[in-house]
């Protein structure tokens, strides 16, 4: 069964992008990956099981997704007004999500409320980046604003997961461990910027063009190192993967050959999005317990309710924070993109089920709400924006 499950997952990973192409990429491939996972998983056809090797590969997939998201972050953009806008909008999102959490706590438990509140403050940056790059939006003001907002929407919730939801000594000791981890990350970022290591860089540059692929191996080593350190400190491993991306971004940022940098980024994306990341989303689909929702039909109403909650908690603050610099139209698009959440939602749903904070039906509805946001909001946000049209839309807009 493990090998047959892996084969079916591999087939789904190939079919999903073909289905996306058939829709002219209006529907992102991640949607088809999760739907195909649901189809072949135990909830429907029962042809594959999300256990063993398949589940372990999915864990690698989410780590690489966070790593790639980290490599896309340009820390130079987080200064002055840009930091105030993105940080302020995320804090406002957290307040709104906290209000929703209070309501949830009144009808359920505090653990459930905390988990859902953290989920409502997320943005699926790792999922949005390929979509934005395909539409050539990343270099536009809308794209840069999305990166700023999305970075906080990915990084902030991971920190909250580490503090409140991981098995650790408690919030206060975890904050201390987070401080130690932050110093380690900052130290590595300083080191790769301060010391040129010319011989090593020449070896890396040469390795990019020969079978050793040394830069890719070093990048994977960075992921493994920071994930292990984070785990040993009782911090969520996803934070380690994300910070590994930040460090690698700093190292790549001082290379002189822009062509080599893009080639390196393409190879990393090939490893992640070509194999491991699709497995993560397919396995997420396999874990959706549709039978539990059928047994509790009222939970189907939670799917649009969660999607609307993401829009209010995440999209509205982003719109308000950026309408003054992007204009109403671009700010509305930004709000829709900021409200797109799936990656951490699936992680939180799994954590909720394992801890008993979420019933299988509510967990499935939570993931369904996130799936609906990624299916709908980016399509609406990027409607009419592509290539030269995107550049025309950005005329007169101020950089985020």
Write a brief structural summary.
This protein is mainly α. It is built from 17 helices and no strands.
In the CATH hierarchy, what is the architecture at level 2? Up-down Bundle
Number of helices: 17
- Rounded mean pLDDT is 87
SS content category = mainly alpha
The total domain count is 1
Strand content: under 5%
Most strands sheet: none
Organism: Salana multivorans
Family: Belongs to the monovalent cation:proton antiporter 2 (CPA2) transporter (TC 2.A.37) family.
Keywords: Antiport, Ion transport, Membrane, Transmembrane, Transmembrane helix, Transport
Domain Cation/H+ exchanger transmembrane: 11-377
Key descriptive features of the protein:
globular, Na+/H+ antiporter like fold, 400 residues, mainly alpha, 0% strand
Any chance you could write out the topology, listing elements then pairs?
Blueprint: H1 2-22, H2 29-40, H3 53-71, H4 80-107, H5 110-119, H6 125-134, H7 141-164, H8 171-194, H9 198-207, H10 214-232, H11 237-253, H12 258-286, H13 290-295, H14 302-338, H15 343-355, H16 360-381, H17 388-393
Helix pairs in contact: 1-2, 1-12, 2-12, 3-6, 3-11, 3-12, 4-5, 4-7, 4-14, 5-7, 5-15, 6-7, 7-8, 7-14, 8-11, 10-11, 14-16, 15-16
